[in-house]
Design brief:
3-stranded antiparallel β-sheet; peptidoglycan binding; 4-stranded antiparallel β-sheet; SPOR domain-containing protein; transmembrane helix; membrane; 323 residues; Alpha-Beta Plaits; 9 helices; 13 strands
């Protein structure tokens, strides 16, 4: 008989409702930690057990657990539970108390009603495992209050101006902190101004270096046309103006751009020695003097010349169209 009570006790750790078919159900309810002020006793959180005689239908939980533990069939487990319930009812009819180990006790009241008294020594809340109730001595605050009042009457605590003046170094420390803060602010501002000035000078220096290096600026056009043989006829060099543009054309194969006019003239002479009808074709938007290998009226002719020059002379040559 006691084995069935043991199985019910084991299941109460994991489930909130364990039905004993034909008899009733054991229910658990979580209760938080409590304090009994009359005895100054602290109780840990626990599961409170109650009994409901209306839930008697077999849900299979207890029978399946018994079958798995004792390695018997489900039918045999159900039959074992029925014999256990018959023995409990027989004892109850005879007016005896039935006690289930670690669960509680059953008895019949004067009104012939079934009563259940849960056991107090077992806590089925696994989260509170190992926690025990304990009593703490009461804190007697009135005694300490009277002792403090008695001490204050004998030696009252006062704060006089003389007491506050005993630590003048605190005032000096506060003043020093303010001075250091102001000094730090102006120091940071000076460092910031120095950095800004230095950055401006470096920026101007870098721009100057860039301008100095843009003496011969050329641009590369991708996907050049196939190379062809081009016979360039050398003509007399004349300055390129709007009137000569109508005569020579508006398509220029550019060799480079120069800030100094003397460098542009030198480039023109070098190209003329190579057989090109080179000339200065004017200033670009950057103020650089542009030098062309030659000038053409027809676009296709200019592109063919550009392809030949890029392959044999200067891969950075490019085509300029002046409208």
């Amino acid at each position: 008989m006691n084995s069935i009570a043991t199985y019910i006790s084991e299941l109460l750790y994991r489930y909130e409702c364990i039905i004993l078919p034909g008899f009733g159900a054991f229910l658990t309810r979580r209760q938080p930690a409590t304090i009994q002020q009359s005895t100054n006793t602290f109780f840990p959180p626990q599961k409170l057990i109650s009994f409901n005689s209306q839930l008697k239908n077999n849900d299979g939980l207890l029978a399946n657990y018994i079958a798995s533990v004792e390695n018997i069939t489900y039918t045999d487990a159900v039959a074992k539970i029925q014999r256990y319930v018959l023995s409990i009812n027989e004892k109850m009819n005879n007016g005896q108390h039935v006690e289930l180990d670690k669960i509680g006790a059953f008895y019949t009241s004067v009104e012939n009603t079934l009563q259940f008294e849960p056991a107090q020594g077992v806590n089925y809340l696994t989260e509170a495992f190992g926690l025990q109730s304990f009593a703490s001595p009461a804190i007697r605050r009135e005694i300490y209050k009277k002792e403090v009042e008695a001490i204050e009457e004998v030696a009252p605590l006062t704060f006089t101006p003389e007491k506050r003046q005993e630590r003048p170094y605190l005032q000096y420390a506060a003043v020093a902190a303010i001075v250091l803060g102001i000094g730090g602010f102006f120091g940071l501002k000076k460092v910031s101004d120095t950095n800004i000035s230095y950055n401006n000078k470096e920026w101007q220096k870098a721009n100057q270096e860039i301008e100095n290096k843009i003496q011969e600026a050329t641009f590369e056009i991708s996907n050049p046309l196939p190379a062809i043989n081009l016979n360039i006829i050398k003509e007399n060099t004349t300055p390129f103006t709007s009137s000569t543009k109508d005569v020579l054309g508006k398509f220029h194969v550019v060799a480079g751009a120069f800030r100094v006019i003397s460098n542009a003239d030198k480039k023109v002479q070098d190209l003329k020695k190579q057989g090109f009808d080179a000339r200065i074709i004017g200033l670009n938007k950057y103020g650089l003097h542009q030098v062309a290998y030659d000038t053409y009226k027809d676009r296709s002719q200019a592109l063919l010349a550009l392809s030949t020059i890029k392959q044999k002379q200067n891969p950075k040559a490019w085509l300029l169209v002046q409208e």
